[in-house]
Design goal:
It is built from nine helices and seven strands; from the N terminus they run βαβαααβαβαββααβα. 47% of the residues lie in helices and 14% in strands.
Length: 218
């Protein structure tokens, strides 16, 4: 099964993506994690995108499409994937359609996580992320067992620089302008699955499962 997961920053993509991937026995591909890995490695690509990510802007579409085209051809995603954070704009969605066509693949659904702006703000400002295994926590709604430590791998949790108040507002604006048009794009193609993402993690996970139930491969 091949799925796209989208929604505003803080809507729960990083939490729900791995849960769904585990359930469907497919891989989650997060373009944000891919980019942060490149930044951490200080690769030429990482150095190029570091500043863009830091100011909450979007990495150019052609670069992202090329990265995703490479990634979806790797053997570990041959059974399917959930894309978290891509596509993030209409040009990326169009580019991705071309990528899928060239690879002889098709998309089974585009899950949109729906949530109010005030809840998003609360989530992002309280979010703590593990730079080693990419797990996400929240200081109030989903705290780690030991403060500042990842439950899964023991890594030191961080408040992502782009989750701080100064950058969050910018990311919302970018999301509203560039990414919300994807709702109509996928609706017109009969692929849109709207899910209410306001609620406890397990409740939202259940709603996602119901939304994709009946789709081939679910
Ligand atoms: P995320 O972890 O998905 O919130 O992504 C963090 C940052 O990485 C974003 O604010 C963008 O700067 C960049 N990024 C991630 N995915 C994309 C994408 N599909 N297109 C452009 N920029 C992206």
């Amino acid at each position: 099964m091949r799925l796209v997961l989208f929604g505003a920053p803080g809507s729960g993509k990083g939490t729900q993506g791995p849960l769904l991937a585990q359930r469907l026995k497919i891989k989650k591909i997060s373009t944000g994690d891919m980019l942060r890995e490149e930044v951490a490695k200080e690769s030429p690509f990482g150095l190029k995108v570091k500043e863009i990510i830091g100011r909450g802007a979007l990495v150019p579409d052609d670069l992202m499409i090329a990265e995703v085209e490479k990634r979806i051809k790797e053997p570990d995603v041959a059974n399917g994937f959930i894309l978290d954070g891509f596509p993030r704009s209409i040009p990326q969605a169009e580019g991705f359609d071309g990528v899928l066509k060239r690879a002889g693949m098709k998309l089974d659904g585009a899950i949109k996580l729906e949530i109010t702006k005030s809840t998003l703000m609360e989530r992002l400002l309280g979010r703590r992320s593990c730079p080693d295994c990419y797990s996400v926590f929240n200081v109030t709604t989903n705290p780690p067992k030991v403060e500042g430590k990842c439950d899964k791998c023991g890594g030191e949790l961080v408040h992502r620089p782009d989750d701080k108040a100064e950058t969050v507002g910018k990311r919302f604006t970018v999301y509203e302008n560039a990414t919300t048009p994807l709702v109509d794009y996928y609706k017109q193609r009969g692929l849109l699955l709207m899910v209410n993402a306001d609620g406890p993690v397990d409740v939202v996970a259940g709603r996602i499962v119901s939304a994709i139930d009946g789709r081939p491969g679910a």
